[in-house]
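re: the backbone from monday

yeah here it is again, tokenized this time
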């Protein structure tokens, strides 16, 4: 996956099946955060074991690990793809210490029998602001066979 130069790639100390995270810690056109370990936006790459019987054709939200998030929309058609494979796109909210909005793209990788997800996490008020850059990142994903 390609990412903009103002995002930072992180591969250490990650959780929840994440193998790489891309963080936007400062936006020179908007406010920057001045406290540690907080990003303005984050994009995670995650891999999960696929449930038994999953195929690209029958992939649905009941097979995905959404960690109890409040799903607000889901989308899947013949043009919804991730890395050239059929995918599901979900939008949700995470409620906790503070509310976050997520967009998730999920696909099934048959050669590895895993589910692969790209997860965009941000404060709801800035969701649309960073979405174009995140969409370019998602569009650049290549899945090796």
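seq for it, each position gets an aa:
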């Amino acid at each position: 996956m390609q990412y903009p130069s103002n995002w930072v790639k992180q591969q250490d100390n990650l959780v929840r099946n994440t193998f790489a995270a891309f963080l936007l810690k400062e936006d020179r056109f908007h406010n920057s955060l001045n406290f540690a370990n907080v990003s303005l936006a984050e994009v995670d790459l995650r891999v999960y074991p696929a449930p038994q019987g999953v195929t690209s054709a029958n992939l649905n939200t009941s097979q995905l690990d959404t960690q109890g998030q409040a799903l607000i929309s889901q989308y899947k058609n013949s043009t919804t793809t991730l890395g050239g494979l059929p995918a599901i796109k979900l939008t949700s909210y995470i409620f906790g210490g503070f509310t976050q909005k997520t967009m998730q793209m999920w696909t099934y990788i048959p050669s590895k029998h895993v589910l692969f997800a790209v997860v965009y996490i941000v404060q709801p008020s800035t969701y649309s602001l960073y979405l174009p850059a995140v969409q370019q990142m998602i569009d650049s994903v290549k899945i090796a066979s």
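The chain has one domain: 8-139. The longest strand covers residues 85-94.
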